[in-house]
Amino acid sequence: MTAGVRHLLGLALAIVSFVGTIVICALPQWRIEKIFWESSNVAPQVFIEGLWKVCGPYSAHTECKEYEEPFVSISQDLEVARALIVIAIIVGVIGILLGAAGSKFINFVPDERKRSKIAMASGVVCIIAGIFVLIPISWTTITTTTIQNNFNNFLPHGTLELGASLYIGWITTLIIMLSICSCIQNIFLQYLFNGFCVKYDCIVTVKLSH
């Protein structure tokens, strides 16, 4: 696989990760709480928490309310996640723009050495974006699991589950982690066999041209 193709593949993975981050930010399914009644004829109450609103049986039908409304509060882990995910989206945009600027196909920067440095910067920025996604996903997963383990002590007929946003977030983070592994591997091989290479191509999935 040529450096140019690897570069485009890295940029494509960056865009996929960026879309995944937007999805988990907008999708109100970070945590699902189900409350079952002793009577089997009564449907369970389901509350679905997201970063911006919580959905539940507040009236005759399921209704979503924003956390700013009265009697609707957001947990600490989701409040921190909201800030970090927004930062991750902003950082992701910067990483993609740098990746496009460092692309050999777009040729936005004529000087190849500067273009390679921009591509490397793109990879670093996208790794930072991945960290901002990993922290809230991990924290909410651990918090939800911990609460669930002690849930029956307070509410015997209730369950707490991980929402779809967390699974999407783990997949998004995995893509970025694979990019980091690729970067480390290429840098290691570059130093091992060729020493420091001035001419490199490292973007998102981070690849160095030999």
From TrEMBL:
Gene3D superfamilies according to UniProt: 1.20.140.150
GO molecular function per UniProt: structural molecule activity
Keywords for this protein: Cell junction, Cell membrane, Membrane, Tight junction, Transmembrane, Transmembrane helix
Segments passing through the bilayer: 7-30, 83-106, 118-142, 162-184
Superkingdom of this protein's organism: Eukaryota
GO cellular component annotations of the record: bicellular tight junction; plasma membrane
Compartments, record wording: Cell junction, Tight junction; Cell membrane
Membrane topology according to the record: Multi-pass membrane protein
The family this protein is said to belong to: Belongs to the claudin family.
Role according to the record: Claudins function as major constituents of the tight junction complexes that regulate the permeability of epithelia.
Name of the protein in its database record: Claudin
Native species: Oreochromis niloticus (Nile tilapia)
